[in-house]
Amino acid sequence: MDRPDGRQPGELRPISFQPDIARNASGSVLVSFGDTQVICAVMIEPGVPRWMIQQDVPGGWLTAEYNMLPYSTLERKQRDIARGKLDGRSSEIQRLIGRSLRAVVDLKALGQRTMWVDCDVLRADGGTRTASITGATVAAGIAFQRMIAKGELKQSPLRQLAAAVSAGIYEDVCCLDLNYPEDRDASVDFNYVMTDDLDLIEMQGSGEEATFSEAQMLEMLALSKAGITEIARLQREAIAAFA
Question: Which residue ranges in the chain fall short of pLDDT 70?
Fold first, then answer.
């Protein structure tokens, strides 16, 4: 079996984080998983939603938005505003991003603040949701380091890192970090979100008109754990540059 880009089954695409891509944000990165590129930006503002005040909920809040820019795909993607509503896929992905970040951010330590996470896909070549979660975590870590430096926080509310990667069965072989041709033709497709301690935050997967065995499921999980270990190392390096 030959992967389209020549990688081995358990090999990640090249991953990088370019910081400060959005200078007005509290923290931001351009994350790249191969040819997939996503701008992940975090803005932290005073105040919390009214429902938290009404229900006397302590701490802050975190919410996420996800968007694929019109030129991110081969054929122009119509903006959601032009259709008058958010498409179902984007809505599902931004909820996943929010859940993933809330699993690792201590909202009580954030204080009476709202943390906005924006993920805008510049170029889509498979794995935009996993790249978004991974990049948003780095952007959050950078934002918190800057708040600590300014005396706005005593310590980072980021208790653990959240990282994500895909795995699937392509041409009957379990493969890590699927690009678009692999994702399109895969018989099974999974997305894994984990902490840097390899605890699962969320797992999404299904057969694409196909079935898979328990052994294959465990093989994909093992590939993903190895991938998350490497991704988390790169995340730590990117955040540490701002410590």
Answer: 82, 84, 243
| Domain layout of the chain by residue ranges | 15-240
User: How many alpha carbons fall within 13 Å on the CB side of residue 166?
Assistant: 26
3-state secondary structure labels for all residues of the chain: CCCCCCCCCCCCCCEEEEECCCCCCCEEEEEEECCEEEEEEEEEEECCCHHHHHCCCCCCEEEEEEEECHHHCCCCCCCHHHHCCCCHHHHHHHHHHHHHHHCCECHHHHCCEEEEEEEEEEECCCCHHHHHHHHHHHHHHHHHHHHHHCCCCCCCCECCCEEEEEEEEECCEEEECCCHHHHHHCCEEEEEEEECCCCEEEEEEEECCCCCCHHHHHHHHHHHHHHHHHHHHHHHHHHHCCC
- Residue 178 to residue 201: CA distance in whole angstroms: 20
Instruction: Indicate the pTM of the whole model.
Output: 0.95
CA distances from 115 to 9, 26, 150, 239 (A): 37, 10, 17, 18
Cα–Cα distance, 177 to 228 (Å, whole number): 10
Q: Tell me the CATH number for domain 15-240.
A: 3.30.230.70
Residue 97: predicted pLDDT: 98
Distance from C-alpha of 82 to C-alpha of 60, rounded to nearest angstrom: 32
